[in-house]
């Protein structure tokens, strides 16, 4: 190994996906031959791009580069070379994962050491075959080069590192010759079970689908109906299912179930949720089109170009084709978005799941109607969850559903409260053992058969040591009624009271950011508010939030999700905000405005959020200005 290898270097790790599998599938000799061919191909690329081989680790390499840009270029060249190889050798496919990081390294006894090296190796192990993952520093150092497209893959924990790392995927399939790879059917039937398993994981990231959920209780009829509809979609028909019901009844849970069913049926899945506060024009559609799940599906379907075009029209980045009236312009947005969604669905069936559409903006709902009406032979599954809002009778969401129903284009599911038997099953899962019928009856009564309430009460009874296991069976103590409060609100307030003052304060600020939030955004808000040196960084915030996780006030989102945490329920957010002073609330809103306005992502994306936070910060003039801009951007779409 070369002596000069030290200082700040970019380290590339490569690894063959499923090499053991390769050996069993192809037999040892042939596998050996394939792997040796793979070594040669890699070494050629290293040489061409100025990479120095540090060690060869059996199925992969550690390579050092003096330049981050060259390292990324090399990784892209590697992936393209293997793509070409796989095209020529369909029976000897080989997929390489690559991970890169830059940092200080030390050379010792023939290899490189240092935290930067460890991280690079961990990053590579997070990659899937055919994927390039890089750390933030690599992205920053590689700089804004036209050929590099980095896709944010969210915060990821790497073993051995306390703080989470933001990882980016370098999307290398960007050649835009757009024709699908020859001889490689991209249709759903062609996806092999293994590649399916690895590919699908990342497609839930936009959402707040919690991993490792306990099995769903009841809802058999609903599940059967959803599965039937998914099958109809696979046979090429657009289908729409709505799910409606009161707060906490299990709408989101059913959506999560549908997402998993759709994934296992070979669908590309995207889940997005409307937000109670953020309701600008096209807000939901924007959320959908920028989701990383969408991006990934577009790459897979070689439909990135149409997706980009739809975004350009929606964000008003396109040339004006002279003299379009506002309604014609609106139609153009619908058309482009529809074309993009249909082209995704042409590669493999598509499931689009929309949560909380009672808060969706009218324009996005109109797009859904347009899609349904124009795309009946496309394999698209739509699922819409709606919580009826008290007081409001005619809302855009109810109108949409009523229209679709009139046209016989939607199957409507209404979720009922749990029966006693179902409650007993839910409790068995929650407590991890059988529950006596009387106990189930008591909790059923307290929680009125609404799963969310019953989960809450169970937890409260347990904390108050009123639930105990006697000879393996969970039983409620006699006279258990008094110490547990009658309402879920009070339960939540009591749980909040168990947090430290600092955590509660930080959590209240987070509640202003939204039901789901990123730790980095929260850190920025805190930094903007606390001038002193004691402000918590992301890592410190993460550790503060752990106690809220433990008390089930927050849930952690999957590693590659856009957001890091979600409040477990609106009630939690509500209680936190109610306890905050008006002044503090305004200050936090104002800080969010500053952060959004300064964000590089382009303010157009954030206009609705800016409008909302400005108004809440008490700056009406600015709020109105942003609202008008948001409306103009959406309406004119030019
Ligand atoms: N069928 C079920 N089986 C097991 N747990 C369930 C079921 N339905 C709901 N739950 C649990 O009850 C809680 C509330 O469910 P969920 O969040 O899906 O309700 P929701 O209808 O979406 O409420 P909201 O209107 O507030 O959004 C969650 O903890 C969820 O895991
Ligand atoms: Mg919900």
Distance between the termini: 56 Å
What percentage of the residues does DSSP assign to strands (E)?
15-25%
Mean pLDDT: 82
The CATH superfamily of the largest domain is identified as: P-loop containing nucleotide triphosphate hydrolases
Rounded to the nearest angstrom, the radius of gyration is 26 Å
Hetero groups: adenosine-5'-triphosphate, magnesium ion
Dominant shape: globular
Count of strand segments: 18
Q: Helix segment count? A: 25
Task: Assign the CATH topology of the largest domain.
Answer: Rossmann fold
Which stretches are low in confidence, meaning pLDDT under 50 for 5 or more residues running? 174-212
CATH architecture of the largest domain: 3-Layer(aba) Sandwich
Helical content stands at 40-55%
Oligomer: single chain
Tell me about this structure:
- 50% of the residues lie in helices and 15% in strands.
- A hairpin with a 2-residue loop joins strand 4 (96-108) and strand 5 (111-113).
- It starts with 6 loop residues before the first strand and ends with a helix.
- Helix 1 (19-26) packs across helix 2 and helix 19 crosses helix 20 (519-529).
- It is α/β, with parallel strands linked by helices and 638 residues long.
- The site of magnesium ion has 3 residues, from helix 8.
């Amino acid at each position: 190994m070369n002596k000069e290898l030290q200082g700040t270097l970019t380290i590339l790790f490569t690894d063959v996906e499923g090499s053991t599998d390769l050996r069993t599938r192809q037999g040892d000799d042939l596998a050996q031959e394939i792997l040796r061919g793979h070594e040669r191909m890699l070494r050629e690329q290293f040489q061409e791009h100025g990479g120095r081989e540090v060690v060869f680790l059996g199925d992969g390499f550690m390579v050092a580069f003096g330049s981050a840009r060259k390292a990324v270029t090399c990784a892209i060249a590697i992936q393209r070379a293997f793509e070409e190889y796989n095209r020529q050798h369909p029976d000897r496919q080989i997929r390489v994962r690559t991970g890169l990081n830059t940092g200080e390294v030390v050379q010792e006894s023939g290899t490189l050491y240092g935290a930067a090296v460890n991280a690079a190796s961990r990053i590579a192990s997070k990659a899937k075959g055919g994927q390039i993952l890089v750390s933030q520093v690599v992205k920053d150092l590689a700089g804004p080069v036209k050929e590099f497209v980095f896709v944010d893959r969210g915060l990821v924990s790497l073993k051995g590192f306390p703080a989470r790392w933001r990882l980016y995927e370098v999307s290398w399939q960007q050649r835009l010759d757009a024709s699908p790879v020859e001889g490689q059917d991209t249709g759903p039937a062609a996806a092999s079970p293994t590649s399916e398993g690895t590919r699908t994981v990342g497609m839930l990231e936009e959402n707040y689908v919690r991993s490792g959920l306990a099995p769903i209780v009841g809802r058999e009829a609903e599940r059967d109906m959803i599965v039937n509809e998914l099958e109809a979609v696979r046979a090429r028909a657009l289908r729409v299912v709505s799910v409606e019901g009161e707060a906490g009844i299990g709408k989101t849970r059913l959506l999560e179930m549908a997402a998993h069913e759709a994934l296992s049926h070979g669908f590309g899945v995207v889940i997005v949720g409307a937000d109670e506060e953020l309701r600008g024009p096209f807000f939901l559609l924007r959320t959908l089109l920028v989701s990383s799940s969408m991006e990934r599906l577009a790459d897979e379907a070689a439909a990135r170009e149409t997706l980009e075009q739809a975004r350009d029209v929606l964000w008003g980045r396109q040339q004006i084709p002279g003299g379009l009236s506002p309604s014609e312009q609106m139609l153009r947005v619908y058309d482009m978005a529809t074309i993009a969604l249909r082209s995704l669905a042409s590669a493999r069936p598509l499931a689009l799941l929309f949560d909380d559409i009672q808060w969706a903006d009218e324009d996005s709902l109109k797009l859904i109607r347009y899609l349904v009406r124009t795309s009946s032979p496309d394999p698209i599954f739509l699922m819409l969850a709606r919580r009826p809002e008290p007081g409001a009778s005619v809302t855009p969401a109810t109108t949409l559903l009523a229209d679709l129903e009139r046209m016989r284009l939607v199957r409507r599911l209404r979720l009922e409260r749990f029966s006693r038997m179902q409650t007993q099953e839910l409790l068995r899962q929650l407590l991890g053992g059988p529950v006596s019928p009387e106990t189930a009856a008591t909790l059923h009564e307290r929680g009125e058969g609404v799963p969310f309430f019953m989960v809450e009460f169970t937890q409260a009874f347990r904390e108050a040591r009123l639930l105990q296991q006697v000879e393996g069976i969970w039983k409620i103590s006699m006279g258990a009624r008094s110490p547990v409060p009658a309402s879920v609100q009070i339960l939540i307030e009591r749980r909040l009271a168990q947090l430290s003052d600092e955590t509660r304060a930080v959590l209240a600020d987070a509640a202003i950011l939204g039901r789901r939030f990123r730790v980095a955004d929260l850190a920025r808000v805190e930094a903007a508010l606390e001038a002193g040196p004691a402000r918590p960084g992301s890592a410190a915030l993460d550790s503060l939030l752990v106690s809220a996780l433990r008390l089930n006030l927050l849930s952690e989102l999957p590693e590659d999700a856009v957001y890091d945490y979600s409040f477990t329920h609106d009630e939690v957010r509500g209680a936190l905000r109610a306890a905050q002073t008006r002044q503090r609330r305004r200050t936090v809103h104002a800080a969010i405005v500053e952060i959004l306005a300064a964000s590089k992502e382009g303010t157009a994306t954030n206009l609705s959020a800016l409008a909302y936070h400005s108004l809440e910060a008490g700056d009406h003039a600015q709020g109105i200005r942003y609202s008008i801009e948001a409306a103009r951007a959406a309406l004119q779409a030019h």
